[in-house]
């Protein structure tokens, strides 16, 4: 399972307006489950769950993780394709998706009263630093193992992964990681100084 997945299908966002599908995503982030298991957990019929599963699979938010033959029936196990989803509209998802992500963060900081620089140049600069940080703390093996843990709440998964990855770094890697974070903070603060009101 990926840490984060960009979804460009506008209809996918509407799928999560349904409370049942939201609950299903929550369950399938925690562990893989069959349609019958999900139905039992949510007190719904398997037919209803299967109807929702088909839509979530088509949108790329759920996938078949494995199949198991029980007597003459093949049972499919499903899981969420990511820990969380980022919805983006537009054709240039790979490049613009990251920029939109940063733009939303900067907009949020501005709404909190931090008055940051939201120019395209600043967004590109912060995106590059963010990608450098992500490369240093991303470990798909750790993320997969965390989301396979039945006794860990999925909502703490991202923080747990971050802590584990920091502990996995040697001193030199951790120093570089801190240097990138310091540079990122300086970029944010310098943008704030230029746009702050007197």
Short description:
The chain has 198 residues and is an alpha+beta fold. It has 9 helices and 4 strands; from the N terminus they run βααααβββααααα.
Number of domains: 2
Please tally the β strands and state the result: 4
Helix content: 55-70%
Strand order of the largest sheet: 1-4
Description:
The model is unreliable at 90-96 (pLDDT under 50). The relative contact order is 0.13. By secondary structure, the protein is an alpha+beta fold. The strands form 2 sheets. It has a two-stranded parallel ribbon. A two-stranded antiparallel sheet has the order 2-3. The longest helix is centred in the last third of the chain and has 25 residues, at 171-195. Helices cover 61% and strands 15% of the residues. A hairpin with a 2-residue loop joins β2 (62-70) and β3. It has 2 domains: 2-83, Arc Repressor Mutant, subunit A, CATH 1.10.10; 92-195. It is globular. The termini are far apart.
Considering the chains and any ligands shown, give keywords for the structure.
Arc Repressor Mutant, subunit A; 9 helices; alpha+beta; 198 residues; 2 domains; globular; two-stranded antiparallel ribbon
Reconstruct the topology from this structure.
Blueprint: E1 2-7, H1 10-15, H2 19-30, H3 35-42, H4 46-58, E2 62-70, E3 73-80, E4 82-87, H5 93-111, H6 120-137, H7 140-147, H8 157-168, H9 171-195
Parallel strand pairs: 1-4
Antiparallel strand pairs: 2-3
Helix pairs in contact: 3-4, 5-6, 6-9, 7-8
